[in-house]
Amino acid sequence: MGSVKNPFVIGFGLGLVALAIAVAAVFYTQRGAHIEVTGKFLKVRTAPLDAHSSVLVIDFRVTNPADYPFEVRDINVALEDASGDKSDGMTISASDAERLFAGVPLLGQKYNPPLTLRDKIGPHQTQDRMVAIRFDMPDTELDKRKSLVIRIDEVDGASSEISGK
Predict the structure, then answer these.
(1) Phi first, then psi: what are they for 81, rounded to 5°?
(2) What are the angstrom distances between the C-alpha of 41 and each of 33, 44, 135, 155?
(3) Which residues lie below 8 Å from residue 85, measured CB to CB, with a gap of 6+?
(4) Is 35 within 8 Å of 156 (Cβ atoms)?
(5) Do 142 and 54 contact (CB within 8 A), yes or no?
(6) Residue 139 φ/ψ region, left for φ over 0, alpha for ψ in the -120 to 50 degree band, beta for the rest
(7) What is the largest CA-CA distance in the chain?
(8) Nearest to 129, CA basis, from 71, 65, 67, 57
């Protein structure tokens, strides 16, 4: 088969190449504009509070890969138990977390500062943080969990999830 000499086919092919280069350039320049944090769990601890409720403490590492700061609007933690049911926990405030560590020695020491509302994670910054959550279930049920998800909402509407066990 001979070479293609139709000017329309050549022009159409060059146009497609130019369009692909333009789209790639737009995506490349916008790579740091997506507001989202990523992370991983470092340590998870549980302790009973009474016969029907427990506390769960998650130490985690969070990274903001964007070119803009991530300001925390809300933090929620959900648990999937052994049977597959999901439960939302009640996030414990930073001041109550201090008292919690003092009053529940089974948790051990506090390693990282809590992630709180209005905290900012700077552009391209990584921080080690913790969150303490109260669940209305015995400690033994918390230990049988399938998974945990920390959902962090940003003030401008973006939200991110960090999962672990």
Answers:
(1) -85, 180
(2) 25, 7, 19, 23
(3) none
(4) yes
(5) yes
(6) alpha
(7) 84
(8) 57
Task: Kindly report the number of other CB atoms within 10 A of residue 26's CB atom.
Answer: 9
The pTM (predicted TM-score) of the whole model is 0.78
Partnered with residue 161 across adjacent β-strands are 151
User: Is residue 11 very low, low, confident or very high in pLDDT (cuts 50, 70, 90)?
Assistant: confident
Find the DSSP H helices in the chain.
7-29, 94-103, 139-143
Instruction: Let me know: does 41 contact 148? Beta carbons within 8 Å.
Output: yes
Q: What is the pLDDT of residues 102-141, one digit of tens each?
A: 999 999 999 999 999 999 999 999 999 999 999 999 988 8
